[in-house]
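Re: your question about DUF4097 domain-containing protein

S., sorry for the slow reply, the queue was backed up all week. Below is exactly what I fed in.
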Amino acid sequence: MKPMYKSLRCLAILLVMAPVMAFGRQATDGPSLPVPPPAPAPAPAPCQGAAVAVTPPKVNVHVQPSHPAMVFDAEKRKTFEKTYKVNSSDMLSIENKYGRVHVNTWNKNEIVVKVDMIAKAGSESRATDMLNRMRIEEARDGKTISLKTVFEPGRTPGPTSSEINYTIYMPEENAIAVKNTYGDIYLAALKGKANIDIKYGNLKCDRLSNPNNNLKLTYGSGSCSFINGGSLQVAYFNMNVADAKSLNGYSKYSDLTIGSLGEEITMEMKYGSFRVNNISNKINNIRVASTYTPISLNFADNTAFDFDVNVQYGNFKVNKDLVNITSMEKDYTSADYKGRFGSNASKAAVSITSKYGDVRFTQ
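Result:
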């Protein structure tokens, strides 16, 4: 009777924890903002004798502009534009909201920033009032050129819409920092360091060749053709990197896909998925700790490395012909595998710790 009692006890626990409450957010008089999806309730610990099937929650992120279907009777515009003479050690810093930031590069020793400010409302006077409360705060302090979108205090009656779009031309060697909220960022190929912070928007970037880039991406989706190195922090953000040399960071409630990986990656991941389609045979180190995140790693021919894979409530999937397992420890809920992938001489190491997610090695 003991096994049946334990199974019934686990079933009762699961039934009690099943309901999930969803909380809404009251509408305000300001712009309509997307509401972050609630974090899923934690799964109860499995009990002996009960079958456990865990599926990572999927997060669909869609960013909408304020009042996307509304037609306004009046629209007012104004433009800020300035040119800065620079050398390669100067940095550009942009802080914006409710609009896009588009960064282009050219072969001139100057930075040009153009900002288009747009206000829409139900009447000419209201649109003018709203436009008058928008301004660009600009400064140059030493090696840093800073521009920030500012909304003066006040309230325009009735529904309104605002949009502030930056168009930038700069040398590719200069560093740039962009923080954008409720808007997209587009980056041309850059050799200077890129610090990107985006919330409720999408990212599209070409080659980021600096080894010390910093990307913090929240609520949206994006892609980069190449990231030489740096930190990648994503949350509720589906990211695709075509080619990367070295990365470290974390991923939460996100799907992260890397086309080709050159040397190393260190990531902490929760609730999502992680896939690398082609890992170079010159790889040095891979370290991943994940929870509710299936991991799929495909290695190029002639790749060799030592591995340590620990899975809890998951499986390690690999063709036995590709590996030599030197140590294997298993119990009811977990397994630890140590061994060698490939036969070539290499000091590379791969360490994976996964909870509630499978780990797959392919070639």
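The first strand starts at residue 74 and ends at 85. The CA atoms of residues 87 and 242 lie 31 Å apart.

Happy to talk it through on Thursday.
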